[in-house]
């Protein structure tokens, strides 16, 4: 048993940047056919081209995960091109609100839940019957430590990620009999575009660093190993689990 994912078809939402891009490149290196999905054409094209320039196989698809019909179109396109789906990674997310949760408007609440939770639900709903027919599959949801323990200013985002963790567990139970394993990854602070406001603010970056036993913020590549592990047969008995990848910040008290 190893991390070989030869010819496995892997969908990665939010694959154009940050953690999603790092996973896309690593899955292609492990032999997978990688579907890079996000809203902007130039972003998905760039990552697909990078994979192909290294001899890998990629498909760039634009999608908005909050829109059910867009997610259906994504999955239809993948089946049309590759004929199957082995791994689906719900990684796309948004967070347009920072501050006390009660200061958020209804439209911000809806937007965050639409992309971070409903979007993942749609993709799971679309891929599960395909995986079931194939005899199994893997779903990985990228949650957050904010979905486990409240993080200051990230209230609705945290609620959406807590929901995603419960969605992971519910689906692990419901899809287990169909040999579909469903697990989540909960990253701490990882240096990407998404978390720029945190790590570019010197005082916050220093607080996070000081609260992290490993003494540094995370990089997108720090998340890749856990995704490869959960996607491959090496984790064949892992189901409904949440892997915290935060340099030990949570166990040492966190920053929230
Ligand atoms: N960075 C951190 O510190 C951190 C910590 C914990 C958890 N996470 C989680 O890790 C995941 C990846 O985040 P990241 O830090 O890598 O962020 P990122 O670099 O900003 O990338 C976000 C990706 O999501 C895509 N996206 C955004 N909205 C979308 C939508 N509605 N439909 C489809 N794609 C959409 C973006 O591309 P387009 O703009 O082209 O759509 C982009 O590819 C997220 O689930 C995030 O919550 C991140």
What does this structure look like?
With 256 residues, the protein is of the alpha/beta class. It has one domain: Rossmann fold, CATH 3.40.50. The chain has 8 helices and 7 strands. The protein has helices at residues 18-29, 41-53, 68-82, 106-134, 155-175, 196-199, 202-211, 221-231, and strands spanning 9-13, 33-38, 57-62, 87-90, 137-142, 180-187, 242-245. Strands 3-2-1-4-5-6-7 form a 7-stranded parallel β-sheet, sandwiched between helices. Helix 1 (18-29) links the parallel strand 1 (9-13) and strand 2. Helix 4 packs parallel to helix 5. It is globular and about 50 Å long. The model has no long low-confidence stretch (mean pLDDT 96).
Helical percentage: 40-55%
User: What share of residues are in beta strands?
Assistant: 15-25%
Specify the CATH homologous superfamily: NAD(P)-binding Rossmann-like Domain
The level 1 CATH classification is Alpha Beta
Q: What's the structural domain tally?
A: 1
Poorly predicted regions are none
Distance between the termini: 39 Å
Molecular shape: globular
Number of helices: 8
The SSE order reads: EHEHEHEHEHEHHHE
Q: What gyration radius follows from the Cα positions, in whole Å?
A: 17 Å
Q: Which CATH-level-2 architecture? A: 3-Layer(aba) Sandwich
Q: Would you tell me the overall average pLDDT?
A: 96
